[in-house]
Amino acid sequence: MSSDMNKDFEYLEHTADAKFRAYGKTLEEAFQNAALAMLNVMVDTSSVKNSSSVDIELTSPDLDSLLFDWLSEILFVFEVDEMVFGSVRVNELNICDEECSMSATLSGEAMDLSVHVFDTEVKAATYNDMRIEKTDDGWMIQATVDT
């Protein structure tokens, strides 16, 4: 499958939820762009000052589970810590036979309804139509989030 490596992510048609494809030359970059695609469903990430950061470390039994856990963890921090994020960096991502792991840093600031314009609430990550594929140009992630 070929991908459009000029895009970080794109949104696909979906009847009820938000579906997107994220691209990257590396799997780490594709995970970063998947996070930004989901975050941009909720808020314009360009309006966020990246004055604080949150480190995330995850371990999951396989790559699909790692992506699901990644997007779910971002939603958890968004809701519980009431922070919005404008920048995402995946520091490390390891794929082994028995488990996958990653570490990442989310940068953003406290949620401020007078500054941040919210669009669509994302309720949860899903496994629906999830795809993680190596392409000729790098990696493509397709994900759907429940809105």
From TrEMBL:
Keywords: Calcium, Metal-binding, tRNA processing. It comes from the Archaea. The keyword Transferase does not apply. GO terms for biological process: tRNA splicing, via endonucleolytic cleavage and ligation. It holds the Pfam family Archease. One of its GO terms (molecular function) is calcium ion binding. Residues 9-146 form the Archease domain. Coiled coil: none annotated. InterPro entries: Archease, Archease_arc, Archease_dom, Archease_dom_sf. Ca(2+) binds at residues 17, 146-147. Transmembrane segments: none annotated. NCBIfam families: PRK00407.1. Activates the tRNA-splicing ligase complex by facilitating the enzymatic turnover of catalytic subunit RtcB. Acts by promoting the guanylylation of RtcB, a key intermediate step in tRNA ligation. Can also alter the NTP specificity of RtcB such that ATP, dGTP or ITP is used efficiently. HAMAP family: Archease_arch. Belongs to the archease family. This is Protein archease.
